[in-house]
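B., you asked whether I could sanity-check this one before it goes into the benchmark set. Here's the sequence:
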Amino acid sequence: MAYFNTGKMFLLPSFDLEVKEQKIIESFLNLLDDSGVGDVISKYIKNNTSSGGRPGYNYYHLFATILFGFAFTRCTLRDLADACKYDLRFIFLMDQARPIYSKFCDFINKVIVPNEEEIFSLISMQIAKEMAFDMDDAFVDGTKYEANANKYKFVWKPTMHHKRLTIKASEIIMKYGLFDYYREEELIRSNTLAHAITNLQLKRDRLDEITYRNIEKALIGLLEKTLEYEEKEDVIGPNRNSYYKTDKDATAMALKADYYSGLGSNMHAAYNVQILVMRGFVFSYYVSQSRTDMNDFIDVIDKFARFYGFYPKRICADAGYGSLENYRYLHQYHIENYVKHPSWEGNKSAKNPDCFHLNENDTITCLNGYVGYEVKLTYRHPRKAEAVFYKIEGCNHCRWMPYCKRFMMRQDDDYKLFEVIKDLERYKYESQNNLCSPNGIAIRVNRSIQVEGVIGIEKQDYGYVRFRRRGLDKVSTESMLNYLGLNIAKLFRYYETRKHNKFWVAPDNLEPELFRKPSWKRLAKKGRKLNTKMRQNLNK
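And here's what the prediction gave me:
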């Protein structure tokens, strides 16, 4: 006779949430309703249980649960699935449904990944309305996160191997006349080798059997290798040099820690993430495979304009973004330029200043005050596009000469040639004047507080240094959820205090910053040391 299993028990929460937690959840759900993100999710709702079949999970509940987890718990999806069983907040959000981990993954891949930009922009714009602050000053910075890939299973771009193979194949083709008119390719293609093998078969009667077999074997081996190289080159693409077998979108990069321990030897699978921050909130993000920040500057701003329909009035970024293309982009869209140029720190500290200054009349002035004029050289071409040559004479009797000619082998010439890109120099002076103004000083201070503060919160406070998903699109969605969760968490801190974040404001009596005056003795000594070291390395 059964005594213990005579009835079934239904365990339901027997007590309610705390009043504080109820208010947080209600405000959170109101935020989602007001943002209009429900219209995006409604396109994917096709559950119709009246026709039979197993009822699906409520998509609105799934989205709210995922975003609430990223905002207030920073948990993984597996932790989120477990929380739906014991955490009253998530039990309430899911209406007591208990989806497993794979259901959250499927929902993210099906609904959030294709609409990540629209979801982010709708909720972020609603946050800006709730906070009621202006969106004039923007700060851009980037960081690298490690990819979820095996760091030992990576592939370098086989360009050098492909070139060597091309030389061998071309020698065989031209020696045995396998093409009537053969033009040597930079990197031979597989279809070229396939045609060569076909043409070899047509000329079989002209060759002895041993020679024919050897040539055929060689061409087939080259064809197999070429197919392998082409497959790798297609995966890598034109803008990077490596990929990882366990995440083909990840690129070999040096992370921040590698700069202090074996730069170039400790390579990791990683992605480059750019963020645009206003008032401490992330309003745009961009995930790329680029190993440098400079090429992603325009993309993150374009994404901001696509999200909200306008451009910021002022943008501040560090010297890693100071390029002619980026400066021209700011000028084109009438954005005030507060982006440092690469020589900013050297000019500011006077430890490595520019050797010349471009004047308004298109002449240049060197450190010693000599004036240089544009010259045209028939025996030499500029190394950079849009660059022109300027010549300054009288260098042999100049005290700054060891510094100005520190990288030159011939120091006896009584002149110095400079390659100058005029537009770049003008943009540099524009950004320098803006950054040294009182408003520019305030913007520089706030850049280090706001955008670097966001990166610090993610990496130091939350310990988030590695992506959990694989593939560029899924990694981008993961970044979106992380930054959107961070924005929501900051919004709810505002709800508690009803106080905006306070950032540094320049006092009214703040004077413009002036750069230090360089010392010719110190720079001449430094120049002689660098030139001696360069000569020793060349002699080796």
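One thing to flag: The first helix runs from residue 19 to 35. Otherwise nothing jumped out at me.
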